[in-house]
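Bug report (template v2)

What were you trying to do?
Predict the complex of my protein with pyridoxal-5'-phosphate.

What happened?
Run completed; filing so the output is reviewed.

Input:
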Amino acid sequence: MKSETIAIHGGYEVDPTTKAVAVPIYQTVAYAFDSADHGAALFNLEVEGYRYTRIGNPTTAVLERRVAALEGGLDALCVASGQAAVHYATLNVTELGSNIVSVPQLYGTTHTLFAHLLPNQGVIVRFAASDGPDEIEKLIDDQTRAIFCESVGNPAGNICDIEALARVAHKHGVPLIVDNTVATPILLRPIDYGADVVVHSLTKFMGGHGTTLGGAIVDSGRFPWKEHARRFPMFSQPDPSYHDMIYTDHYKEAAYIGRCRSVYQRTTGSVLSPLNAFLLLQGIETVALRIDRHVENGRRVAEFLRKDPRVEWVNYAGLPENPFHGLARKYLGGRACSLITFGVKGGLEGGKKFYDALTLIKRLVNLGDAKSLACHPASTTHRQMSPDEQRNAGVKPETIRLSVGIEHIDDIIGDLDQALKAMESVQQGAVR
Ligand code: PLP
């Protein structure tokens, strides 16, 4: 099936008992056992079935199958937020003393997790000087357990050369983990280019309405964990925390996601609620349609800003002069995402005047909503970074990030224009 169809039908057959066409919300914590032996068999993973919603839930399972199918993966685990997905995806391959090599252009909280929290758990993240494959390769050593990147960086808008990064990762026997939140599988499927694991904040374009937090980890099922057992003993050695389970024996190709659920989801519990799984499924039904409109509106806004003399610079991979334009053609079919960063004339002060004058476009920290949104990363999402780290992540002091929504384009551009006028009149008043 094509993505548009998977987004609506993927992972769900009409319920055989009730004939419910919409995915039912299984708002239950636990599931009854037929007998003591049945309960034991479920816990031994000898029979299929649900035990406790922290480990699995039928509504969430539909979302997991749908997201996995959209990404061209084997299986997925859905969790409470995008941050939980990034955390679990990286914990699942690391141990005390190991490291991950990451691109520098990251969402601010992922940077904080990598720079401050993972090191406290004994895992060092090495940030490369750029997203170039050579810069990444330089940092790989015997203790490296993964390469991490965002397919389209938030807010840098850089587009990673996933095929080249996957080649480097596989040459050194480690997986490539890609955060595909900004692109969504409608524009790009990293697994098609060699990525091993894909993570998502479903909170953004996938859910699409700014109502529901959620995250997903998708396993391609392709990384040969057994072949690289020296680096990844956790998949092919008996696990004493789960009655000596050997994940590659039990889950076969799905060893990565099986272990993620059995170890991290079960013991640390960043669980997506069944109601949120339902709301995200509702959102995903229209993701392909919405992305079409986001992309078209993004292009029109970027063209408006680029021509406007009140705007100093615009960063949008859809523009031919953008350094990532070639990669946008290769990986996004030329359909650059609707995340645009720009700076107005008048720097930080001018930017603040512009930002405060917006009316339709909301001032906040979120992206991927049907509504148009504006964010000032340096003072919010990327505030914990040093000035150098901000620069490497593509954040300038004056950067404004727009997530262009799906309203009528005339209204979006009208709001930008009136805010630029308001900024200009304040600046002219100051000069007089
Ligand atoms: N990854 C990216 C690229 C993001 O932009 C975000 C949030 O903005 C996250 C992960 C974290 O997602 P959540 O807010 O669902 O935890």
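What did the reviewer find?
Residues 81-83, 86, 107, 110, 150, 154, 179, 181-182, 201, 203, 213, 215 surround pyridoxal-5'-phosphate (CB under 6 Å). The chain has two domains: 3-283, 288-431.
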